[in-house]
């Protein structure tokens, strides 16, 4: 997943330089299809209800630090 996040980051920055405002990635493009409910569990990250908690994962990455991968935190920083 970290390698895919690196690729996503490169693609986001390249698209941004070309004026892109929205970038869409494929379903399961980050983690692939090799997981089942049990094996994906260690990679799941909490995402709090935005109506209850005001949290920016890029600015406050340790508040809901869910996994080693940190996909929510990293991908949030791409858009700032």
Automatic annotation (TrEMBL):
Chain ranges passing through the membrane: none
Residue stretches in coiled coil: none
InterPro entries: Biotinidase/VNN (IPR040154), C-N_Hydrolase_sf (IPR036526)
Protein name: CN hydrolase domain-containing protein
